[in-house]
What does this fold into?
Amino acid sequence: MDWGMKNRLSRLFNTKTGKCVWLAIDHGYFLGPVSNLEDPAKTIKPLIPFTDALMLTRGILRNCVEASLGVPFILRVSGGNSIAGPALSNEGIQTCMEEALRLNASAVAISIYVGTEHEHQTLMALGKLVDEGQRYGMPVLAVTAVGKELEKRDARYLGLSCRIAAELGASAVKTYYCENFSSIIKSCPVPVVIAGGPKLETELDALKLAHDAIKEGASGVDMGRNIWQSPRAVGMIKAIRGIVHDKMPVKEAGKLLK
Ligand code: R5P
It folds into this structure.
């Protein structure tokens, strides 16, 4: 692996544990001002010390994150869709590799929509991004998006999407936790991280989700709503860190919630 690619990946995955706690705040690129993320700068300020990397768009990065903080980030470069539009799967690359390099991103992220009418365009976009990423030493994170069809989140569908993403050259894949998650891990040759999805009923439910995913082989989390929509967001991210980096059981991690 090229030095630059290796160096970028080492900013994202803790070099001691090999795992990651990324904070996803990219929701606005198609959802607009999501609850508790209306003012991203305010939301993330207390969470940054416990975050290995942010996942966000260039607009939020430039306007809401101090460059001098030095926090690593994964730049979402796909978009062009919205919750108000006809098809969430109709995404393309809307931020170029030159911009990712200029901003000093540690990786770029793109959603793929396997099994939709826009499957082909999103997979071709992934391939193009990987080619550019190889040229410049930039890892590519593929996100196995399901749009509004949350019921798609099963091992058969997500396993298919993750494997395709890896085959097309993604350095890592972000997907959802589901029943029989270990089968996804077994058939995906690159690190798999999980999204949290919409806010679960309790914080302990979200901690259990992270715990089970790590136990079954996930390389970490790229979680958003279950952290920053919690009234105890700092406690939540500390607890998630305990699970991911310190192998804490849910009960012990739960004590970090305050
Ligand atoms: C989708 O909007 C984004 O890719 C999010 O980064 C992803 O869904 C993770 O955030 P959450 O844990 O809120 O699902």
Observations:
- The domain at 3-254 is CATH 3.20.20.70 (TIM Barrel).
- The mean pLDDT is 97.
- The chain has one domain: 3-254.
